[in-house]
Design a protein that fits this description.
Blueprint lengths: L11 H15 L4 E5 L8 E5 L4 E5 L1 H12 L6 E5 L1 H9 L5 E2 L14 H4 L5
Parallel strand pairs: 1-4, 1-5
Antiparallel strand pairs: 2-3
Keywords: Signal
Protein name: Solute-binding protein family 3/N-terminal domain-containing protein
Length: 121
């Protein structure tokens, strides 16, 4: 099975550079996904301001968006999906990168929060 690029893999710089180049070459924002499970402060949904509009945020999403801005590219369109579907969509080219730092094993279907504390960004 092909390894899916995520923000916690050693291949991140190469995977991110390739994905950013592909997105930039097509003039389209990077297509990213993150787990639909909330793991604050890494990935979670927060309401913003008085309007109370829900917005996906967290360290994993913010690091990805900042890297894209520094590269002069548009922010990524990040979808929150079940982790297994997120990884499969990246593996099949439907999305460009999986953005998360919480995994239990490479084949895990659901990220686990206890591993997040031992990871660094």
């Amino acid at each position: 099975m092909r390894r899916v690029p995520t923000l916690d893999t050693p291949a991140l710089p190469l995977a991110a550079a390739m994905a950013m180049a592909m997105a930039g070459a097509h003039g389209q924002p990077l297509r990213a996904c993150a787990s639909d499970a909330d793991f604050p402060p890494y990935v979670f949904t927060a309401s913003s301001g008085e309007s109370g509009v829900a917005q996906d945020t967290g360290l994993a999403i913010n690091v990805l968006q900042r890297a894209l801005r520094r590269a002069g590219l548009e922010p990524a369109a990040v979808q929150r999906l079940p982790w297994k579907r997120c990884r499969e969509m990246v593996a099949h080219g439907q999305l460009d990168i999986a953005s998360t730092i919480c995994t239990s094993t490479p084949a895990a279907s659901t990220p686990t929060p206890h591993r997040c504390a031992r990871r660094t960004i």
